[in-house]
Task: structure prediction
Amino acid sequence: MEPTNAPAAADAGAGVEADGDAYRIRPLELADLSRGFCELLAQLSPSPPLTEDAFRVRFGELAALGADHLVLVAEDASTGRLSGAGSVLVERKFIRRCGLVGHVEDVVVDASARGRGLGERLVRRLVEHARERGCYKVILNCTPELRSFYAKCGFEEKNIQMGLYF
Ligand SMILES: CC(=O)SCCNC(=O)CCNC(=O)[C@H](O)C(C)(C)COP(=O)(O)OP(=O)(O)OC[C@H]1O[C@@H](n2cnc3c(N)ncnc32)[C@H](O)[C@@H]1OP(=O)(O)O
Result:
């Protein structure tokens, strides 16, 4: 599928949030590469800048997943730069009568915009998307320091995380 500059997962029911405040929460767009998307992600994990081609290819791959993959960004209404981002992936399982599970990933708020409730708003929007898709639960991995942030977003601690890095 040829990627366009249309919002990813535009059919996801993930409508733009325009509540008149400083940030506009909406799906990722191709033009967001030049609005600071990579700089935001670099605050989450080592993430060198992407070329336009690399970004376009990955954007197209994710768009092809439709509403099963949603990347939301928060655009600063006064500057047009991105101040936050987060993703949710809907996993299709066999168990629970072919149940669906939402995975929240890569939540980040720019250092200059933290502490104003933007992270919580992003996470709640991602969770709402998973709920509307019919997921029976939403899960995520985080460091122990973020327990209280995710508790504020409605999550409770469950099990432990295991990892194997290559
Ligand atoms: C699944 C994942 O992606 S895990 C990775 C999470 N991302 C990161 O660690 C990247 C670096 N950190 C960040 O980008 C931000 O600090 C975030 C996303 C964790 C939080 O974003 P913010 O916009 O600052 O959070 P927000 O203002 O919505 O905070 C909501 C509540 O959580 C609390 N909170 C926020 N960050 C933290 C924290 N690091 N530790 C403890 N509590 C926190 C706030 O005090 C607030 O509580 P309050 O309502 O009582 O005041």
